[in-house]
Amino acid sequence: MPELPEVETTRRGIASHLAQATVRQVIVRTPRLRWPIPELPIAGQPLLAIERRAKYLLFRFPNGTLLVHLGMTGSLRVLTRPQAVQAHEHVDIEWVDGRILRYRDPRRFGAFLWTDSDPEQHPLLARLAPEPLCAQFDTDWLTRKLARRSTPIKVAIMDAQCVVGVGNIYASESLFRAGISPLRPAASLNANEIARLLAEIRSTLAAAIAAGGTTLRDYVDSDGKAGYFSLQCAVYDRAGLPCPHCGQVVAQTRQAQRATYWCPHCQH
DNA sequence: AGGAAAACCTGCGTGC
DNA sequence: TGCACGCAGGTTTTCC
Predict the structure, then answer these.
(1) What three-state secondary structure class fits A210?
(2) Among A94, A137, A172, A254, which has the minimal tally of Cβ within 10 Å of its Cβ?
(3) Which nucleotide has the shortest C1'-to-CA distance from A161?
(4) Rg of chain A on CA atoms, in Å
């Protein structure tokens, strides 16, 4: 489900409602997510901040950090009053003011993890590429990461050690906007193309975050679909339809077991 | 080591 | 209507 913009939209959607809140208790109805949910020692602890690193949400507490990943189908919303538990609503974090942060995840590819040390050093975060909207994510970085790699560029930009936050939709969309074929070996991109791709990854993610902000549905007391917002895609999921730029037919293939969409006329 | 494939799950649409 | 199948916005683990 969520790529970086959806995770960031979730973060913003719930953060203001949980500022300064203190945990009363955690209720785990289904401990089996991507990994078993460990003991979360946060009862009585005040939430200091909700941050984001790549597609992970970091709930900062005085004694450690709760790492949450939404996987493919995870979502979070804040309830201001008790609401009947629906299917796939696996975790509640109950706050002393009565609010509930409720996690739903039908496919259970998501994760709840705990660390009491620097979360950046956590094995799942330590090797991630820099944030794509930060200065450290630059052409030097991308050039180094793409060098000598034979893997297709579309697969490479979905590798979190190369680029974080770009999932299957925005990989196709960024390559379309950069005019680069997803089939190209990563190392075959020249400096110009790398710069273009980097700029389009940035602007695609930034635009999607902005769209999330404008079409943001309520993350409080919503119907459980919080976390999704409509995306207008140029090529993703548009196989056989006209390319919005040239009108030629959008093509589809499969790379690393994921669908890829592109315009063979506009992308080289 | 890099790269390809399998693995973890449930739900939904399609076609027979 | 039922059922098999393929596919879904992710990422780690395993295997070659």
Answers:
(1) helix
(2) A254
(3) C11
(4) 20
- Which chain C positions have some atom within 7 A of a protein CB? 7-12
Distance CA(A194)–CA(A184), nearest Å, equals 12
pLDDT in tens, A160-186: 999 999 999 999 999 999 999 999 999
Tokens of A162: 């190369």
> In what helix (H) or strand (E) does residue A263 lie, and over which residues does it extend?
none
Q: Is strand B in 7 Å reach of the CB of A224?
A: no
CB A251 within 8 A of CB A228: no
Name the token pair of A120. 């950046």
**Would you name the residues of A annotated as active-site residues?**
2-3, 55, 258
User: Nearest CA to the C1' of C9 belongs to which residue?
Assistant: A1
User: Which bases along strand B come within 7 Å of a protein CB atom?
Assistant: 2-11
pLDDT digits (tens, 9 = 90+) for A71-118: 999 999 999 999 999 999 999 999 999 999 999 999 999 999 999 999
Measuring from the CA of residue A152 to each C1' atom, give the nucleotide at the shortest distance: B3
Dump the DSSP string for A111-154.
EEEEESS-GGGSTTTTTPPPPTTSTTSSHHHHHHHHTT--SBHH
pTM given for the model = 0.96
Length in residues, chain A: 268
Strands laid side by side in the A23-28 sheet: A23-28, A89-95, A100-104, A75-79
